[in-house]
Amino acid sequence: MPLGGLNGVPSPQPVVPPGQTPFAEILREKLEGESGLRFSAHAQHRLKSRNIHLDEASLERLNRAVERADSKGAREALILMNDLAFIVSVDNRTVITAIDSDSMKDSIFTNIDSAVIVK
After folding, report:
1. Angstrom distance (rounded) from CA 109 to CA 119
2. For 96-107, what is the mean pLDDT?
């Protein structure tokens, strides 16, 4: 599809009332929050499409797992937490993707150098 939409007609954009913050920005800020972790656009999409919600305690546990992986020299880690899996770029402190238990069935994780299991 050409830039600017089909046949030069601009693609519709969501309307955000003046003084309000777009949902995507609120989600990004909430996910980055206090943990210091960033979530890639792909990870944000996966969280939303797979209906994965992370509360503050879960974000803190994920952050601690990334810190543990970093202390062992990990660069790309698989973090297993409850019934979720996260692929994280430890160097960048960025969650690359999030996987729920249904999506994990018969999965193979490649390009990781470590795994952290969080109880």
Report:
1. 20
2. 93
Dist CA 63 CA 107 (whole Å): 24
- CATH numbers and ranges of domains, the chain: 36-114 (3.30.2310)
Q: How many whole angstroms separate alpha carbon 106 and alpha carbon 48?
A: 22
Question: How far is residue 5's CA from residue 10's CA, in Å, rounded to a whole number?
Answer: 5
Tens of pLDDT, residue by residue over 26-36, are 666 665 555 58
Q: Is residue 78 within 8 Å of 116, Cβ to Cβ? A: yes
Contact, 108 vs 87, CB < 8 A? no
Q: CA-CA distance, 105 to 100, in Å (whole number)? A: 9
Task: Catalogue the long-range contacts made by 45-50 (C-beta closer than 8 Å, 24 or more residues apart).
Answer: 46/97, 46/98, 46/99, 47/98, 50/98, 50/99, 50/100, 50/103
